[in-house]
Write a structure and sequence with these properties.
Strand order of the largest sheet of chain A: 1-2
Structural class of chain C: mainly alpha
Shape of chain C: globular
Largest sheet of chain A: 2 strands, antiparallel
Oligomer: heterotrimer
CATH architecture of chain C: Up-down Bundle
Number of strands of chain C: 0
Distance between the termini of chain C: 49 Å
Strand content of chain C: under 5%
Order of helices and strands of chain A: HHEEEEHHEEH
CATH superfamily of chain C: Formate dehydrogenase/DMSO reductase domain
Chains: A mainly alpha (222), B alpha+beta (314), C mainly alpha (427)
Number of domains of chain C: 1
Radius of gyration of chain C: 23 Å
Radius of gyration of chain A: 38 Å
Helix content of chain A: 25-40%
Number of strands of chain A: 6
CATH topology of chain C: Formate dehydrogenase/DMSO reductase fold
Helix content of chain C: over 70%
Structural class of chain A: mainly alpha
Chain lengths: 222, 314, 427
């Protein structure tokens, strides 16, 4: 083994000692840094506002006659002979474009059942002999609490689907043995005079985990 | 052996002991830095406890084990949210296989199903976890690449588009079940693919495997406002999850296994969603699968055989 | 029996003691690595407390740099055993000792792999669920369960081989062939298997068309056998510089030929992949489009992949030319290949598999500071392990640390090794 020059040995020893000393000091200050730093380190997150209650509401859009009866609400809207004469069926008036003229007493009705004014004869559905009932084209009378029979007289496929549960809203129990299914009627969703479902407001879109705070702009993920 | 003069020998001895002392100091400094570096673990909180750590796999729990587990869960929820829930371990019903049918002619893209699900299933509001994702697709295409996830139309539906909500398809041949290394997710007899939240190790392999992007991970502690907790819970379903585990749609197992409709179906304002027992020929879903002409099973070519059928009336 | 256990413990203690001793450069290097490890540990503690939200991962991109590094390092571990093939199969006795350096690199790499997987787990406290028998291992269906078994098996295999050979050298005994040769051949096959199983983790996912391709497995092996030996080439030169261990250029040139061929195969497979993705124009190439050209206004990975391809091509050209026989050029080619393949396996494989999501959304991924610190910490820990392994094994292989000089104190022994260093500095 070679002889070591002691002065060189000492120099390299001192360097090693300095490094060890330096490391010791660094480690202790690192320990303090870690300890202090651990107090505040929560990852910043965008505040996502809670969704409006209306977007989880299961209430149907419309109430039918049957609903009103069940809820013992005011049925005066359905008491036609409060204003009309039993002997005289009301006259329907049309303008020069064959569009129906809504009398001011029924101003809340928007008439758009069928394209191209196809279905603008009130007595297609209402029974002029008895305004408290409805009628099908073949003359059969339908009561207000049995409207699907009327709607289905023209909209057969929809009625068949509805009866099977494939059309319209259902709620309650899929397992009839354990509970009741609650099937909404046509008029719960469709306004009989303007049955087309209107557009609605959509609930807010999703937020990705590391997204910037939500904006109203259409910053699409796509 | 080196033949060094005696005084240098003694000096090198001293140097050695000085070196050893400094080495010891550095080591001690290192150990204290090591201990301090673990300081953030003080914030772990109720990450785990002995009972939870040792808890057996769901399929190995005896009824008395399950009672204890449910007791623990109910206690945890009560401590955290101030309300004692009712947690049940619901078993699949006999002669039942669930199928979900969604009418794409009817869906208006209102996203109410997304939020009803969040409310029913105690999902985290921040960070946001939503099992259902509604895609706004251009008319004529089923290519999800063309879908828009973030539409914020003021009025839906918009003309020229169709809306497609996507959630876990409860596949008959689920890729997520295949890849889970610890069997934390499996398919039950009634067709629902479930997750044992207390068994999942959070490797996210199932999330990578799912072709429908249906699975969600808890990247941090879920935040649910105390007043929004749904106390009607089930073990495999909507009990609050912890940080670091997977979750996904489970067909509202706490509702459907007692015969009720899932929350997304109940809230849908246009009745686009249909659910039921395919083994019952009189159910809506049997009727639909019998009568309707065209069904789309998303990504059918994946061989996953989903239980989710999209169909059209026109 | 008792005395052999005592001897073994003495051996282990001496090895441990020598790992704590060195000159100032050793302390500086180990100190720096320890500091980086501590930062990584601190970052991981924060991640444990807060959850994986401290990383840049999300439901859209649910695997990130942790798994990317894991994938790269499994390749390095597999390829580190490549040195074994020329020695044992072709009987190249000169490379005998270097096999141990290769296998020690494999051990360090596997330790890093296991660390990367552990930090990626959402619930690492539930690791016991993976233990077959006690937990619920989904074997053989889940590729991850295969990975757990093969990686741990590979670790044990290499620890056994290195440990046995080193201990025999320490005792100046000839190692019994039956106790290590079969394991060596097993390790060769096992090396290929660990990387194939890792590849199959990705290939088996039908829902991710970018990964669900048969080329992934072969590409993994080709790139691993490029990057692994390249790392060994660099490592051997470092050993040559910092210890008195003699390593012949011949060893480096043997490894060079492995890197050369593997890189050519790797580039060829890249060309195959590019053709398949872009020629037929199906929608399945969305991920490849994102990676190479950007998608829907997102271009994050495009500079990375083109850098990687450029590096790999330059490295391939240098390696193919006789120019790379010169160590300086060989080093350049090795460094370029290592970086190029690290990018390819990380950003070029793991991330694009998630973008776009199976539902077509594009959400960019960017590793967070915390995530990067954890990665650096694990890399530093790997370097630390490997340095310690070398610090123990080089003196054993040189005969400086042996049973014969058990009585000699470490100080003098290290003094003698240092003297060579100082002597060489003087000259």
């Amino acid at each position: 083994m070679a002889k070591i020059d002691p002065s060189v040995q000492k120099k390299s020893d001192n360097t090693a000692n300095y490094w060890l000393g330096g490391l010791t000091v660094f480690f202790f200050s690192l320990a303090i840094f870690f300890f202090v730093n651990s107090k505040q380190f929560t990852t910043a997150r965008a505040e996502i506002p809670l969704v409006d209650k209306k977007f989880v509401d299961t209430t149907p859009w419309r109430q039918t006659y049957t609903d009103l009866v069940k809820a013992r609400e005011d049925l005066s809207d359905y008491d036609c002979y409060a204003c009309h004469d039993k002997a005289k069926p009301p006259l329907i008036r049309y303008d020069t474009d064959q569009k129906i003229i809504i009398p001011k007493e029924h101003a809340n009705i928007e008439m758009s059942h069928g394209a191209h004014e196809r279905n603008n004869i009130c007595y297609n559905c209402h029974n002029e002999q008895n305004l408290n009932t409805l009628q099908v084209r073949d003359g059969n009378v339908v009561k207000f609490d049995n409207t699907p029979q009327l709607c289905g007289s023209c909209h057969g496929p929809s009625l068949r689907d509805w009866e099977a549960g494939a059309h319209g809203r259902t709620s309650g129990y899929w397992d009839r043995k354990l509970g009741e299914i609650n099937r909404l009627s046509c008029a719960n969703c469709h306004n009989p005079h303007a049955p087309h479902i209107p557009t609605r407001e959509a609930a807010p879109g999703p937020h990705s985990l590391h997204e910037a705070p939500p904006h109203e702009s259409s910053k699409s993920i796509h | 052996m080196n033949s060094l003069p005696p005084q240098i020998d003694k000096a090198s001895d001293q140097a050695m002991s000085r070196r050893s002392f400094l080495r010891g100091c550095a080591a001690f400094g290192g150990v204290s830095a090591l201990a301090a570096s673990l300081a953030p673990l003080r914030e772990l909180g109720d990450y785990t406890n002995t009972d939870q750590f040792l808890q057996k796999y769901y399929k190995e729990l005896t009824p008395s084990d399950m009672t204890k587990v449910i007791d623990r869960i109910e206690g945890e929820v009560e401590r955290q949210y101030g309300i004692r829930p009712h947690v049940r371990d619901l078993k699949p019903m006999d002669g039942v296989e669930f199928v979900y049918a969604l009418n794409l002619t009817r869906c208006i893209g209102c996203r109410k199903c997304v939020h009803a699900c969040v409310k029913e299933n105690n999902q985290s509001r921040s960070p946001e976890i939503q099992y259902i994702r509604v895609l706004k697709m251009p008319h004529g295409s089923m290519d999800v690449e063309k879908g828009n996830h973030n539409y914020d139309s003021k009025q839906v539906p918009e003309k020229g588009f169709l809306y497609m909500p996507i959630q876990c398809q409860q596949c008959k041949n689920p890729p997520c079940v295949k890849v889970c290394p610890v069997n934390a997710t499996w398919q039950e007899k009634d067709g629902i693919t479930v997750i044992d939240y207390d068994w999942c190790i959070g490797c996210r392999y199932c999330e990578a495997a799912c072709p429908y992007w249906a699975r969600r991970f808890n990247f941090t502690k879920p935040q649910i406002p105390k007043d929004k907790i749904n106390p009607d819970m089930s073990y495999l379903g909507n009990r609050p999850r912890k940080q670091g585990v997977m979750e996904k749609c489970h067909f509202c197992i706490q509702r459907t296994r007692v015969g009720k409709y899932p929350a997304c179906l109940e809230v849908c304002p246009v009745g686009a969603r249909k659910f039921g027992n395919i083994l019952d020929p009189n159910s809506e879903v049997s009727y639909i699968l019998r009568e309707k002409r065209v069904f789309i099973q998303l990504k059918e070519e994946m061989g996953t055989s989903p239980r989710f059928f999209y169909y059209f009336d026109k | 029996m008792i005395s052999s256990i005592q001897n073994y413990i003495t051996f282990l203690l001496r090895c441990a003691r020598i790992a704590c001793v060195g000159d100032w450069r050793y302390y500086a290097w180990m100190g720096a690595l320890t500091i980086i490890c501590l930062f990584g540990l601190n970052a991981y503690a924060k991640q444990l407390a807060q959850g994986l939200i401290t990383t840049g991962m999300s439901d859209e991109v649910s695997w990130g740099v942790y798994i990317a590094n894991f994938t790269f390092l499994v390749g390095v571990a597999a390829a580190a055993v490549m040195m074994v093939i020329p020695v044992y199969i072709y009987g190249n006795e000169e490379l005998h000792d270097l096999v141990i350096f290769g296998e020690l690199l494999a051990v360090a790499a596997i330790i890093m792999c296991l660390a990367f997987v552990t930090v990626d787990l959402g619930r690492p406290d539930r690791f016991w669920h993976l233990i077959p028998g006690i937990g619920q291992m989904n074997f053989p269906q889940s590729m991850l369960s295969w990975d757990v078994l093969v990686l741990n098996g590979y670790l044990l295999l290499n620890v056994h081989i290195c440990g046995y050979l080193l201990y025999c050298r320490y005792q100046n005994k000839k190692p019994a062939k039956w106790f290590y040769i079969p394991f060596v051949f097993l390790a060769i096959a096992w090396a290929v298997s660990i990387h194939t199983v890792t590849a199959f983790l990705y290939v088996g996912l039908g829902g991710r068309p970018f990964w669900n391709a048969s080329i992934v497995g072969p590409r993994f092996l080709a790139s691993a056998f490029t990057a692994g030996p390249a790392i060994i080439i660099i490592a051997l030169q470092i050993i040559r510089k910092f210890t008195t261990y003699r390593i012949q250029d011949k060893a480096l040139l043997t490894l060079r030929s492995i890197v050369q061929v593997s890189m050519i195969i790797n580039v060829f497979l890249l060309a195959c992949e590019v053709f398949k993705e872009f020629y037929s124009g199906t929608t399945h190439s969305a991920s490849a489009k994102y990676l190479f050209f950007g998608l829907h206004g997102h271009y994050a990975l495009v500079p990375w992949i083109w850098t990687a391809i450029t590096f790999n091509l330059i490295a391939m050209v240098i390696l193919a030319l006789p120019l790379s026989r010169s160590l300086r050029w060989l080093d350049v080619a090795c460094v370029l290949s290592i970086i190029g393949i690290w990018i390819e396996k990380g950003m070029g494989l793991v991330i694009p598999g998630f973008i776009p999501t199976p539902l077509g959304a594009v959400v960019d991924y960017m590793p967070s500071l915390n995530e990067t610190l954890v990665c650096l910490g694990i890399w530093a820990f790997g370097f630390l392990c490997y340095t310690i392994f070398l610090r123990m094994s080089v003196p054993i292989l040189q005969g400086h640390l042996s049973k014969a000089n058990e009585d000699e104190i470490e100080a003098q022994m290290t003094t003698s090794t240092k003297s060579h260093l100082i002597k060489s500095n003087f000259n």
